[in-house]
Design a protein that fits this description.
With 383 residues, this protein is α/β, with parallel strands linked by helices. It has 2 domains: 106 residues, no CATH class; 249 residues, Vaccinia Virus protein VP39 (Rossmann fold, 3-Layer(aba) Sandwich). It contains 11 helices and 14 strands.
Length: 383
Amino acid sequence: MNDFSNLYDTLRESITKDNFVKLTLSKPIRKSEELQNVYVRQIVLKGEQSFQFLYRNKTNDYVKNYSLQEVIVELEGLLTINFRAATLFTLENDLQVFISKKKKISYKTVAPSFKNKLPDTHDKPKVKRIEKSEYLFHLGITDKEGKVIHKMADKYRQINKYLEIIEGLLASSKLAKNIHIVDMGSGKGYLTFALYDYLVNQKKYNARITGIELRKELVNYCNDIAEKSSFKNLNFVAKPIQEYQEEKIDILIALHACDTATDDAIYKGLASKASLIICAPCCHKQIRQQVKGKEQESPLLKYGIFKERQFEMVTDTIRALILEKHDYNTKVFEFISNEHTRKNVMLVASKSTKKSDDEAINSKILSLKESYAIESHYLETLL
C-alpha cells in the first residue's frame, strides 16, 4: 500500500484544529482519463460535519458526500489509481503531495494560500425576498398562517425571481431620491404588491407605485387590498395605458401587456425619460397581421409555429433597437422557466449617458423590416 500517512495525519490535524480549507487532486495519471480533478471541502449536512467531493470530468461534474473515515478510503483509491498530485490547503500551511511514475511519494510544505475558511453550508442558501405579509393572504398566495398554498407555489417562485431581477437592476441604476414606479397592465397585482412591500417596507426606498389596469373590478380589488395592507403609497388607476398622463416616471414596468399595449407602455417610458424600462412582451400580433399573406423567402417561415416564434423575436428585437436609439442599454433574457409559460422573455432598458449611433441602428431596423416584408413597427408610429 502506498504511504499517504503524512497527508492523512495532516488532514486529521487540520480538522481537529479547525483550520482545514480544502483539498484538491490534480494531474491525472492517464491523458485519456475522463476524471480531471477532484475538489474536497468541508460542509454541514443535516447538522453534521461532512465532506463534499466534487468530481470534475471532461464532460460533466457530480458530487458525493463522505464522513471523515470514508474520505481516507476514497482518497487512497483516487491517489493510487487516478492522480499524481494533491494539495491540502490549511490556514497554517499548504501540504503538496507528488506521486512519481514509479509510485514514489514526496511532500512539500509551503506558506498558506488562504487566510480564511470556506463557507461550510451544503448549498448556497436561496435568498427569499418575500417576507410574510398580509397582502399575500389577501391575494390568495398564502393561508392565514402564512404558508404558501400548494397551487400558488409557482406564482410564489415567480414573484421571488421577479424581485431578484429588480434588485439587480436597481443596484446598477442611478435613481432619484424619491422614485415613482408605474406598472402598466398590473392585472391582479401579484408582482405590484410584492414590489411595493420589498422596496418600501424591506429596503426602505422612498417610493410610490401606481398600477394601471383597464378592468375596473381589478382596480377596486387591488386598491382594497392596498388599504387593508396599509400600503399608503400604492394605488391603482382604471384607464387605458394610452390615456395615462404622468411626467415623472422613474421606473416603467409592463409585464404581459398584450400586443401593442407593450409599445404604448414603452412609449410612456421614453416620453418621461424613465431610468428603467422593464417589459415582458405578450401576444405579438401587430407584425404577424401586417405580413399575413405576404410571400416570405426564409424557410424558417414555412411552418406556422416557427413563423409565430420568429415574428415574436423580430418584434422584440426592433423594440430593443428603438430603445437603444433613444440612449438606453438594452438586454433580453428569460424571466421564468419555460415549464410555466412560453411568454417568458423580459426586455430591460436602462438609461445611458452614452449617445447612440442612430444611423447604424436605423440601418439594422430597416434591414429587419426589409427581410420580413414589414411596413412599420407600432412603436415607430408612436414616436
